[in-house]
Design goal:
Rossmann fold
């Protein structure tokens, strides 16, 4: 389902989860579902990047394959949708540009940008961090048992009131140690990836000979 196909219903609280998703795994899906539930989001959009700024030297599967695997992974969930916005735009995918476009498409929706605690540390170095924090509330996802995220990194970028709002939107998810790099490695070594990604995605990887 593309972004244009999702505009038929009003969206009041919209979560955005970007990434390479090469391939999507249960960690991505659990993060999206935990944020949807705890932040009471109407929808969560999963946006595969055309080219991530920090991964420009890394070889990835084609956008078509990554989008198809995402569609298989979220199929049947009424609130999780795959958006090809960044892929359709092409070039390097900067968060500020993506959020600006979504804001234009849904001016009345409150935007929430899903990220891990490690990304929070780096956010001040992203392109136009002030603008990112104006456009969306960062939802920092913390794994159960892990240290509290360091929100002090945002003190110079937002008002105390905005920072308090950001802190309130923290999400805790169960510990799940999965990584796309490990799945690709296991496929390349002909090792099992069962229960690391949905079965439909596993079969898609096998059928199309990905990561070999």
């Amino acid at each position: 389902m593309t972004t244009n196909q999702m505009t038929y219903q009003p969206i009041h609280r919209l979560g955005v989860l970007g990434g390479t998703f090469d391939p999507v795994h249960y960690g991505h899906l659990l993060l999206a579902e935990s944020a949807r539930e705890q932040c009471r989001l109407d929808q969560v959009w999963l946006l595969p990047t055309a080219s991530a700024p920090h991964k420009q030297r890394q070889s990835t599967s084609t956008a078509h394959h990554r989008i198809e695997m995402l569609k298989l992974a979220v199929g049947g969930h009424p609130a999780l949708h795959v958006s090809s916005l960044e892929v359709d735009r092409g070039g390097v995918s900067y968060t500020v540009d993506t959020l600006s476009i979504i804001r234009q498409q849904h001016p009345d929706a409150e935007l929430f940008f899903l990220m891990g605690g490690d990304s929070l540390e780096d956010l001040p170095q992203w392109r136009q961090p002030h603008r990112i924090l104006e456009l969306a509330i960062p939802v920092v996802v913390r794994r159960a048992g892990w240290p509290e995220p360091n929100y002090d990194t945002l003190k110079k970028l937002v008002t105390p009131q905005r920072l308090a709002r950001i802190r309130q939107c923290q999400v805790v998810m169960p510990v799940i140690e999965l990584a796309s790099t490990e799945i690709r490695r296991r496929v390349g070594n002909r090792e099992s990836i069962r229960y690391r990604t949905p079965r439909a995605v596993e079969k898609y990887i096998e059928t199309h000979g990905l990561y070999q």
